[in-house]
Design a protein that fits this description.
The protein is of the alpha/beta class and about 375 residues long. The protein contains eleven helices and 14 strands.
């Protein structure tokens, strides 16, 4: 399945901070066909470092970040459903963010870009869905930060969502999760090439961003998966180098590779803005409690977590489930066994596929009979 990224421009968007961004470009991809009733649309929401390219092969020849879940016969079956994925506000892959040109100055926004929230991201996505002529989504789904957006959608736009599938996610960040994000931000801002965000057209803060990504990758994996993948194996040698210039361990080589690879495709300022949006997120904000917030939702839920995910541990998904059940909402919950840690929602898709496939089929049936 070959796909292309489309783009739409909106005049402006008002943000939770009180600021306004004008205009706003949104990059998105679609898969499958929208039916005549416009009742089979699903919005897939990407995690922190994702983008609009969720499935298929793009012009660079690379598969989408959830290609093992989206496509003909897969969990999000494009023979049945019309799947949409857009790059989030604040991103750097076609949607307006700090690397975009500020029309008032003719230069990239950099740190003049206003602080954004998960609510702002959902607001821009709602503008896109309205633009596509879809009144009600069959489902909103995503893992990690994508799950936060799914929760936000269910509470902020209850009349626009039939079902929600938050995976390996949370209703709010814990102190530990905020701490990891702050380490990444400080690594970027400590890089002398960051220059208070004004590095566009110059050398980017590659070292700081690479370190931030290395920290992130450690949190995405589990102890078991790292032991299985790397152990204490040495990299292309039989004994230690006994210096700091050589790479001794396989895991060191892997982290450095991942960090360097990330620098080539992601903007450091987007890292700052998006992680801050994640830290600010609390779906209960303004409603008094999580249960009161979830009471606003009329969607049916499938909540999925993974046993080895220590970054977004199962207790956070279970908080959402308890809040929904306390208000007699329709919710199914499953904790899947996996050794892959937080990355399980991207790579360990066997059982996940069966759960999502069945849940979407029943959601479509219920909508048809409503």
């Amino acid at each position: 399945m070959t796909v292309e990224t489309k783009q739409v421009r909106f005049p402006s968007v008002s943000l939770d901070s009180g600021a306004t961004i004008a205009p706003v470009d949104v990059a998105y991809q679609t898969y499958g066909q929208l039916n005549a009733q416009r009742s089979n649309a699903i919005l897939v929401l990407h995690a922190f470092s994702g983008d609009a390219h969720a499935a298929g092969i793009d012009d660079s020849g690379k598969p989408g970040w959830w290609d093992n879940m989206i496509g003909p016969g897969k969990a999000f079956d494009t023979n049945i459903y019309y799947v949409i994925c857009s790059n989030v506000l604040g991103g750097c892959r076609g949607t307006t963010g700090p690397s975009s040109i500020n029309p008032e100055t003719g230069r990239p926004y950099a740190m003049a870009f206003p602080v954004i929230t998960i609510g702002d991201m959902a607001r821009v996505q709602k503008m896109l869905i309205d633009h596509l002529g879809i009144e009600r989504l069959l489902s909103v789904s995503g893992g990690s930060m994508g799950g936060m957006q799914a929760l936000e959608w269910s509470v902020a736009y209850p009349d626009s969502v039939v079902s929600a599938i938050p995976i390996a996610s949370t209703p709010r960040h814990s102190a530990q999760q905020i701490a990891f994000n702050e380490v990444g931000r400080q690594a970027i801002m400590a890089d002398p090439d960051w220059e208070n965000g004004e590095y566009y057209g110059k050398k980017p803060p590659a070292r700081g961003l690479a370190v931030a990504r290395m920290v992130g990758h450690i949190t995405y994996m589990s102890d078991d998966s790292m032991r299985e993948k790397f152990g204490r194996r040495l990299r292309d040698k039989e004994q230690f180098g006994y210096n700091f210039s050589s790479v001794d361990f396989e895991v060191e080589s892997y982290l450095r590779y991942r960090g360097t690879q990330f620098v080539d495709r992601f903007d450091a300022n987007s890292y700052l803005y998006i992680t801050k949006a994640m830290d600010y997120f609390d779906v209960a904000n303004g409603y008094g409690s999580l249960a009161a917030a979830m009471e606003r939702s009329t969607a049916r839920f499938l909540v999925i977590s993974f046993t080895s995910d220590w970054l977004y541990p199962s207790y956070q998904s279970q908080e959402v489930v308890r809040a929904l059940r306390s208000r007699n909402r329709d919710v199914a919950y499953c904790e899947l066994a996996s050794n892959y840690g937080h990355d399980a929602f991207l790579v360990d898709v066997g059982e996940q596929t069966e759960l999502v496939r069945g849940f979407l089929a029943s959601s479509l049936r219920e909508r048809a009979h409503a």
